[in-house]
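Entry under discussion copied across for reference:
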Amino acid sequence: AEMRFPGEALLEFEIIPLDDERTELRQMTRYVPRGLSGLVYWYLLYPFHEIVFRSMLKGIAGAVNKPILMRPKRLLFSN
């Protein structure tokens, strides 16, 4: 989606075969805020993004008719 917001965002998916029965789907989102408005945007909308991305994973699992075996993990990176 083309959106205008104060920063740079990236959404990536990675599919990793584990064995004949299981596949791991990794969804990674990154956001680099630009200035004070970028930080405000991030902290105000973070709870909503959490809901949207978890719902997205549930939707993908439902579309392929597979259960979710593990809860999503949140990783935080900083420099």
The chain has a mean pLDDT of 87. The helical segments are 35-63. Residues 35-63 form the longest helix (29 residues). The two ends are 27 Å apart (CA to CA).
